[in-house]
Each structure stands twice: as C-alpha cells, then as structure tokens.
C-alpha cells in the first residue's frame, strides 16, 4: 500500500452540504477500491493564484490516503468529470505528517499551544 496526499478544489459557490457530499463521495470511492482514508482536512475557502473557470476562490479539501494506484486512478477518473470541482492533485509521499495543521487560523494555533 502506498501513501498519498490528495487535494481537491471545489467551486467557490459550493455550500457546506455540497462540500460534505463531495468528501463522502470520494471517501467511498477510495474505500470501495480497498483504500483507507487516514485523515480529511477542510482547508476552507482560499484565494486562487489565477482565475480557474471564472472563479477567484476555491474551497480546498485535503485527504491523506493509504491505497494502491488503482484506487487513485478511479478517484481521479471520477473527479475529472465532476462539474463541482475546479482542480485536483495527488502526490505520493513516504510518510504522513499528521501533527501539523497548516491552514488553522492564528487564534486556533494560539489556543492549541496553551
């Protein structure tokens, strides 16, 4: 089993329920193909570096996945035809960093450090 970090960017007008449905949909695809979702992070609505399909912002969802390449191929095949998504990216990693949360707000970080 390989380790992957997978990020999707949904359209800026996606509601919180749409984002939850997307997360569940793609988690089920991974699990159906003998994969395991280690961690899911919702990074929130962030500015894009450039316009993508006339969108200035996008809602980021990040998955840490343990699976084989077949599950990733199936995942990306489904994402390529999904109209709610702007982009997706999969990166194979050697190990997961489960401790650091890069997109928490400063207030949350200060509370965690106390």
What helical percentage do the residues reach?
25-40%
CATH class: Alpha Beta
The domain tally reads 1
CATH superfamily: Ribosomal protein S6/Translation elongation factor EF1B
Write the CATH fold name: Alpha-Beta Plaits
Largest sheet: 4 strands, antiparallel
Stretches where pLDDT falls below 50 for ≥5 residues?
none
Number of strands: 4
Q: Helix and strand string, N-terminal first?
A: EHEEHEH
Beta-strand level of the residues, as a percent range?
A: 35-45%
**What best-fitting shape do the alpha-carbon axes yield?**
globular
Helix vs. strand class: alpha+beta
Instruction: State the distance separating the first and last CA atoms.
Output: 37 Å
**Total helical elements:** 3
Label the CATH architecture: 2-Layer Sandwich
Instruction: Give the rounded overall mean pLDDT.
Output: 86
What gyration radius follows from the Cα positions, in whole Å?
A: 15 Å
